[in-house]
Design brief:
The chain is an alpha+beta fold and 365 residues long. It folds into three domains: 112 residues, Four Helix Bundle (Hemerythrin (Met), subunit A), CATH 1.20.120; 91 residues, Helix Hairpins (Orthogonal Bundle), CATH 1.10.287.70; 120 residues, Jelly Rolls. It has a four-stranded antiparallel β-sheet. Strands 2-7-4-5 form a four-stranded antiparallel β-sheet, with no helix packed on it. The longest helix has 36 residues. Bound molecules: adenosine-3',5'-cyclic-monophosphate.
Length: 365
């Protein structure tokens, strides 16, 4: 939240600083926000590079190789671009227009804090073929109406429609149905071309919009995999429940998709539920050792049973699909299914003993 606030305030101040009427007091404020933002972003950049080796996937690389690989990831490059303009200005001075554009690109830092951009990129990637095809169609239509307009208007308005490339500007503005009106056909054929261009523009521009919209629906459906009766019945802990109870559990389980490397539960956090692993592998950072949990396992039960806080941190080693069961729903389910309750308690006791013995092993005699 703090970083998002710094980014937004800094970009707003950068934009405001370009308003000529704004007084010296505002400019001082702007310079302060710039100083504070660059300081925070620099510390953030270095801290992220430093801790990147905590990623479970880094085990095969030396820490510095992994840090270098981290520095080349798109998000790290965005972080670097966010701080670079100020250092460029500091070293070389001037070039304010250039660094202004880089400064505004800081907005991309927000990419990290919202999954929405991931969805947009995933949609564009998945739909790239039909999108390229529609852009080809748009280009052909643009060429067609620009050529027609050139033929119709070149003698009447040689300064505006003197060549096909010169007619492109009018063609794009017409196809996009913006129609600024700064250049307009005056001959009957030119006007007919303009009308045709406006209609074709609506049709051709509707195509990418439709493709992207349906791509979004598809992507969202893929992300939120659906909790079915069959899926719940496959979870070992639920296998012995009656069919109707499985159906009621399916209603309260929430599907969660986790990216590789993300933290699912953090040591010391309040618990709001427990998780069942459908696919993927998770790493439990138990005291003194790391335990891997796989499809069919569950975690997050200890804090629910103790009514306390998370005992350890659990991270996704790979991309995972999990089912989340809320604390209240868990209690309700456990109260109605003593076998299930006993099994969860048995596993929790086993894990507690495992952690205690590991902690004892590490104590000096
Ligand atoms: P909870 O304490 O709620 O949050 C962290 C979870 O990690 C914990 O519940 C257990 O489900 C799991 N966990 C803790 N220690 C171990 C262990 N030694 N082996 C496997 N899982 C564990």
């Amino acid at each position: 939240m703090a970083l998002v606030t710094v980014i937004v305030v800094n970009i707003a101040a950068t934009a405001m600083a370009t308003v000529p009427e704004i007084g010296e007091a505002w400019h001082r404020f702007y310079r302060w926000t710039e100083f504070v933002a660059v300081l925070i972003f620099t510390v953030e950049y270095l801290a992220r590079a430093w801790v990147s080796v905590e990623d479970p996937r880094s085990v095969n690389d030396s820490p510095w190789t992994w840090r270098l690989r981290h520095a080349l990831t798109p998000l790290a490059i965005i972080d670097l671009v966010a701080i670079l303009p100020s250092y460029i200005e500091l070293v070389f001075g001037g070039a304010w227009e250039f660094t202004l554009i880089l400064r505004v690109l800081r907005l991309f830092k927000l990419l990290r804090f919202t999954g929405a951009f991931d969805t947009i990129f995933a949609v564009i990637r998945a739909e790239r073929r039909p999108l390229i095809a529609t852009f080809c169609v748009i280009t052909v239509v643009l060429l067609l109406i620009s050529t027609l307009a050139y033929v119709a208007e070149r003698e009447a308005q040689p300064d505006k429609f003197g060549s096909i490339p010169a007619a492109f500007y009018w063609g794009i503005v017409t196809l996009a149905t913006v129609g600024y009106g700064d250049i307009a056909p005056i001959t009957p054929l030119g006007r007919a071309t303009g009308a045709l261009g406006a209609v074709l523009g609506i049709l051709t521009f509707a195509m990418p919009a439709g493709i992207i919209a349906s791509g979004f629906m598809e992507e969202l459906r893929r992300r939120d995999f659906i909790v079915t009766w069959q899926l719940v019945a496959k979870v070992p802990l639920f296998r012995h429940l009656t069919a109707s109870r499985i159906a009621s559990v399916a209603l309260v389980l929430r599907p969660v998709r986790i990216e590789a490397g993300s933290t699912v539960v953090r040591k010391g956090e309040e618990a709001d539920g427990m998780y069942f692993i459908v696919t993927g592998e998770l790493l439990v950072e138990a005291p003194g050792h790391t335990v891997m949990l796989k499809s069919g396992d569950f975690f997050g039960e200890m804090a629910l049973l103790d009514g306390g806080k998370r005992s350890t941190t659990v991270r996704a080693g790979t991309g995972c699909e999990l089912l989340h069961l809320g604390a209240a729903e868990f209690r309700q389910l456990a109260a109605g299914a003593p076998d299930l309750d006993a099994e969860v308690r048995r596993v929790a006791d086993e894990r507690r003993r495992d952690n205690e013995s590991s902690t004892a092993d590490r104590q000096p005699a």
